[in-house]
Amino acid sequence: MPAWNRITKVGICQAIQRWQELESLTMPTIGHPPYIMEEIGRSCKNFTELKIMGSFDQQFASAILQFLPNLKVLSLRCSKVAMDALQCLLNSMEYLEVLNISHCLLLVIAANGRKQVVHELDGQILERASRLREFHYCQSRSCIACQRMVVDEGIMRWYRYEDWFWRRDEVRSLDLQDYGKLFDAGCERLTSVE
């Protein structure tokens, strides 16, 4: 799905209404996710997989809980994730089987009201995640994707990196590889500027 800010709310909802057989969606940051999640929940009865690339907060988690309670696969790869939203998901999503929080910037609100980066998951999160069929997590300081998240302050600047980078995912069913790529290698050679 293209950037949400390039399509009107009505346009997005009309498109989703026509995608009745939609099972999976990869989408960038969404400014106001409830109306999109509501439309997917209402129109797409086979929907089970979602990949978000952007910011994931309590509002987003609540929208998924309310409108997509049967979601089985969720990837937040390379997203800015609020820990309370993550805890909410793990506590409440009974059908969730696969969760990817690899290369995320995990944030918690400290007692002084400031956001703090979480570098390691606590035992409570790990225990809840252990019930999932798959749980993907990477917060390595030596990982290039994790380093990019820190440099980009939690909102990945996809345009700065390889054009294939956003297509990748640790969750096999969401790893697009070259799917959706506009040009093959031959075309890229013809159009490249040296």
Which key phrases capture this entry?
194 residues, alpha/beta, Leucine-rich repeat, LRR (right-handed beta-alpha superhelix), five-stranded parallel β-sheet, four-stranded mixed β-sheet, 7 helices, 32% helix, globular, LRR_dom_sf, F-box/LRR-repeat protein
Query: For the CA atoms, what is the radius of gyration?
Result: 17 Å
| Cα-to-Cα separation, first versus last residue | 31 Å
What best-fitting shape do the alpha-carbon axes yield?
Answer: globular
Number of helices: 7
Helix content: 25-40%
Just give the CATH class: Alpha Beta
Report the oligomer.
single chain
The SSE order reads HEHEEHEEHEEEHEHH
* Strand line-up in the sheet with most strands: 1-2-4-6-9
- What is the number of strand segments? 9
Q: What percent strand?
A: 15-25%
Output the CATH topology. Answer: Leucine-rich repeat, LRR (right-handed beta-alpha superhelix)
* Largest sheet geometry: 5 strands, parallel
Structural class: alpha/beta
Count of the domains: 1
Low-confidence stretches: none
Organism: Dichanthelium oligosanthes
Protein name: F-box/LRR-repeat protein
InterPro entries: LRR_dom_sf
